[in-house]
Fold these 2 entries.
Entry 1:
Amino acid sequence: MEKKYLFVIPAYNEEKNIEKVVKDIQKNMPKADIVIINDCSKDNTKEIVENLGVPCLNVPFNMGYAMAMQTGIKYACENNYDYVIQFDGDGQHLASEAEKLLQRMEETNANIVIGSRFLEKTDYKHPFFRKIGTKVFSLIIKIFCHKKITDPTSGFQLLDRSVIERYAKIGKYPEFPDANLIIEMLLNGYEIEEVSVKMKLNDTGQSMHGGIIKPIKYMINVLYTICYIIIQYLGKKG
Amino acid sequence: MKNSYFILIAVLIIIYIIISIRKNNLSTKTSFLWILASFIMLFLAIFPYSIDWLARIFNIEYPPALFLTLCIVFLLIINFNFSKKISSLNEKIIDLAQEISIIKEKIKKGKKG
């Protein structure tokens, strides 16, 4: 039986980018389906997506990137997709790189494959704050899970069916599903692999973690969530 | 009677809570806590020296400190319960919203096909 692939793309005020992103996927990965989660955008994202003829989940209120992503994963779970490719709606990710993730999954039988920006030297320029954050998270993962993940904050990930089912069921899906979620999955025995991909910094949309206060808030949030997961995990074990 | 004001306040609070329950503004579980609290208030208003007696049992020299501590603990417990409630409600709301958006898409597909 043919495997079913689904690109899950959360979009919030992405009227400038979303069409490009969808066209890019349709051109480079014609066998895959696409679902866009319109996170209650204030601009014309909804109309643009509907004109493209792509399935679009319109959530009734703005629930944030992570929850929108989970909506897409639930959709994938319900519609029996075998693989989900988490994709950003701002044109940062390139659909032509998705094939690499699929290949890597086939080679290693991993449950999650992350598209990493740092596995090899690419020309991706990283904002200063995120660079520190990435390093710290990488280190934490190494300490707790003895696994080297070079880019835990990457949103470009391939999930297999077992992970889709698990994510769909998480009641407390984290607000920032980065290092914390990776640690949780590693602790629970899921295999995570990385593959080097190219990305570009988005040109029109705003970054999710711009400014100074937001990244700090984000760091604290993720660090705390890691503690939270470890508390929960130790509680279950002991 | 010098503490009649306090008795009056306690009675008013009890009446207010009972009215709220009758109007269905409070669930059984939460209303129980508040009813309990308001009757304790009434009791303390009528017998203010019971706090002194309690303080003596716990070896506390300054009885109002005991009273305030108990108040704070009670409020903390209620507050913590609300935090828990809010968290679980939040989760449920998001879950519902996600479900709704998926079902809406299904209906749309059904209409087209």
Note: Chain A touches chain B at residues 37, 55-61, 63, 67, 70-71, 74-75, 78, 171-172 (CB under 8 Å).
Entry 2:
Amino acid sequence: MFKWLHPYAKPEKAYELSLSFYKWLMPLSLIGIFVGCLWGLMFAPTDYQQGDSFRIIYIHVPSAIWSMGIYMSMGIAGFCALVWQIRLMEISVLAMAPIGAIFTALALITGSLWGKPMWGTWWVWDARLTSELILLFLYLGVFALFHSFDDQRTGAKAACILAVIGMINVPIIHYSVEWWNTLHQGASITKFDKPSIAGPMLWPLLINIFSVLLFFIALTGYRFATELLRAESHRKWVINLIK
Amino acid sequence: MMYSQFFKHMLQRDFQVAATQKHEFGLPIIFFILVLVLFPLSIGPEPGLLNRLAPAVGWIALILAMLIALPRMFVEDYENGWLEQLFLSGYPGSLIVSARIISFWALYCLPLVLTSFLLVPFFSLEIKLWWVLAQTLLCGSMLMACLGSVASALLVASRKGSGVMALLVVPLLIPALIFATATMDAAGQNLPITGPMFILMALTIFALTVAPIATAQALKLNLG
């Protein structure tokens, strides 16, 4: 595997690889999201309790799941960057941070839109909502820390350190907040049991979760390529590329 | 020099330097008292309400006062070159940093925790409850000093860093706040407080173990 990975330590190769991720996965993910949303919004059966308003689940759940997932992958990338001093990993951390922040914000907004008709309020101080909000602050912290340095390289390394510390802290925050207050419905898919959501409703949700993951990878590929070009703008291969 | 001797020497030096600039330590305490005064003025002087809010006010005031003090943890030694010399000396960075965390805690946090006794007359808090609050504040301020040392080391060279400090420290501090509140609730209802208190202590010890490593890494990064 390392023999296969090795050439991608070179910026040119990494640039090509990330752009090809973007090229292939972007259309695929858009088709997936389109199909999932169409199926979920038009053809999935209406919920007997929540009526049609449950359909926001097809946006809310994928973005909430991947908001946590992106933080994990960001932390792992930051860890690799610090331990093996891989510069491209630092750039990937910076590429992921704003995307994760947007996903988190999206999960919070759709969640509060869903909460208004169901719970009768836009916001409650419930465990999952709170830990999602804290997650948003962690993302903003990584981003703000990067921008408070004049030297990009130092800023990127500092952001990596913070991402790793955040990764250690995310489970602690999650469980302590859960212990503090819980109102949100329990997990319906990820528990180790038969999913407590009906098949016809579940399928479009799974399609959406998967295509949002692809969407995230494609976006990261694009942002990574752009950040790489900016960081290497004085190098020969970039100059050749732009000509 | 042995590591233990070096550690003692570092602590000694920090206290000696602190003794020459006494006026610096008053500022966070005055800030702490000002925050305490703001609460009764903004929500009204009703004793029952103030009594209920007292532990929360103590915690908020401590967090705010420490956010004022934290940026000073490394800045001075970074600017006059002492830190660079220390890191060149060959002693482990985490040892240097943990000495600094402990001296910072003793110089800034301990006075704040003692000042929180003002909650007893101001907010008509019972002495027994204050004693529990002081224990949670002792643990919590240690934890915050650890987290703050990482943030302070990351931002040591940055000119625009002061606003970022709160964003880095406060989200990571939330578990401690939750368990401190749980302890205070239990104490208020005369229930045993050992459960949440022990978790708070465990978090503190965990932070004290891990934070110096991250801080040393961050300082090395800024020293270039």
Note: Residues 11-43 of chain A form the longest helix (33 residues).
